Amino acid sequence: MLEDQFICFQKMENSRFAVLITRVMDRTITDAEHSELLGYLADLQNKGHAEQLIADAWEQFKPKHTAFSEQESRLLLRRILDQRPTVDLPKVVSKRRFTALYPTLLAAASIILIAIIIPYFTGGDKATAGLTLEQAVSQYGIEPGTDKAVIKLGDGRTIVLDGTGAGVLAEEGGMHIKELADGEIRYEPTVAASEAPVTYNTITIPKGGHYRLVLPDGTKVHLNSQTTLKYPTQFAGRERMVELEGEAFFEVQHLSTPKPFIVKTLTQEVEVLGTSFNIDAYGIRETKTTLVEGSLRVVANGATVLLHPGEQVINREASPLQVEAANMDQELAWHHGYFLFNDEGIESIMERVARWYDVEVEYHGNMADKRFGGTFQRSKSITQLLTSFRTTGLVDFKITERRIIVMEK
């Protein structure tokens, strides 16, 4: 009985109520959570407090598709809170039972009514009901990543890059900053480069993007989605140091006068003279450095290791450095334009997929044993990738807005 679940709202943590309100507003609330919410709200003692929280949630809600003017939406909210429903209530209870409980379910009805109205603002489940994966991907504009980045200059200016080949974009620190048509940014010295002060630039790659950068010394860098690299406009000192957060493939320019090239991440430093390598440093839990050719030294956790071609060092938080043979195809797959999964967990896979296609991911059910293998071109539609996973019978998918829900089968 619903009445048996009624609990005074005063005993409820505000944070829990906020969670349930949020799940109503984004239409992810479960049946059990919905019953819990009704239980808290049905007590008339809580009505005033509940109405205020509902009004606050309404004010913070940002519709993507406006079906009503601001004045109309405020009037609609007021009618809800004034206990004058303007749309049919869902069939949670019979009309007779609802009439009997009307005085005690008004606060709950407010939440239910808002949940019904949300589709008019967002498109909601009503708009996506019955859509195939392909139709949902098309409707929400989920596409593979493209050439895009933002450079922040030393003087605070920002330059938006889109791979259109705009030519010289700016001059700073004795360098012309030039965008080429193939998704590459290049630094070329000006006549007065030797007299110019050194400044620092930062290039940021958003979700759904990648970019190629040629540093002032000629070193080539390919930056993956959600990656940031900070670097000077000139390498004037005894070393060439850059700071990386995310993932990048480096082809370090060999200089006639040796000058170590150092990549600093949140957890380690990599030192090289002339070599090519990949660093995956999306956070502090694990960083992987994979050497393609040449040699490099990795310093982390008070230890130093020397890598040889075909090896990688794994730097895990609070663990010794681990050197092992690298699966070069897998580690460099993104750099060559594809995904490669080798008996990999679905959550790890979707983490990379989310970065490239600029989506959010959530999981319903136990994903511990959901593992997949195979290769997939990053230039293809995400529909093909999700469909191939679905055909295994292990998982299913639902797409709402730019959120992919992975469901256990």
Structural class: alpha+beta
In helices, the fraction of residues equals 25-40%
**Poorly predicted spans:** 1-13, 62-69, 79-124
* Whole-number mean pLDDT: 79
Measured on Cα atoms, how large is the radius of gyration? Answer: 27 Å
Give the CA-based shape: globular
Explain how this protein is built:
- It is a single chain.
- The chain contains 11 helices and 24 strands.
- It has helices at 14-25, 31-41, 47-60, 70-81, 95-122, 124-128, 133-139, 328-331, 333-336, 346-357, 382-390; strands at residues 146-147, 149-152, 158-161, 167-172, 175-180, 184-189, 200-205, 209-214, 220-223, 227-232, 240-251, 261-264, 269-272, 276-281, 286-293, 296-300, 303-307, 311-316, 322-325, 338-345, 360-364, 371-377, 395-400, 403-408.
- The protein has a 19-stranded mixed beta sheet that branches. A 3-stranded mixed beta sheet has the order 21-24-23.
- Helix 2 (31-41) packs across helix 5 (95-122) and helix 3 (47-60) packs parallel to helix 5.
Question: Helices and strands in order, then pairings?
Answer:
Elements: H1 14-25, H2 31-41, H3 47-60, H4 70-81, H5 95-122, H6 124-128, H7 133-139, E1 146-147, E2 149-152, E3 158-161, E4 167-172, E5 175-180, E6 184-189, E7 200-205, E8 209-214, E9 220-223, E10 227-232, E11 240-251, E12 261-264, E13 269-272, E14 276-281, E15 286-293, E16 296-300, E17 303-307, E18 311-316, E19 322-325, H8 328-331, H9 333-336, E20 338-345, H10 346-357, E21 360-364, E22 371-377, H11 382-390, E23 395-400, E24 403-408
Parallel strand pairs: 1-8, 6-8, 11-12, 21-24
Antiparallel strand pairs: 2-3, 2-7, 4-5, 5-6, 7-10, 8-9, 9-11, 10-11, 11-14, 12-13, 13-16, 14-15, 15-18, 16-17, 18-19, 20-22, 23-24
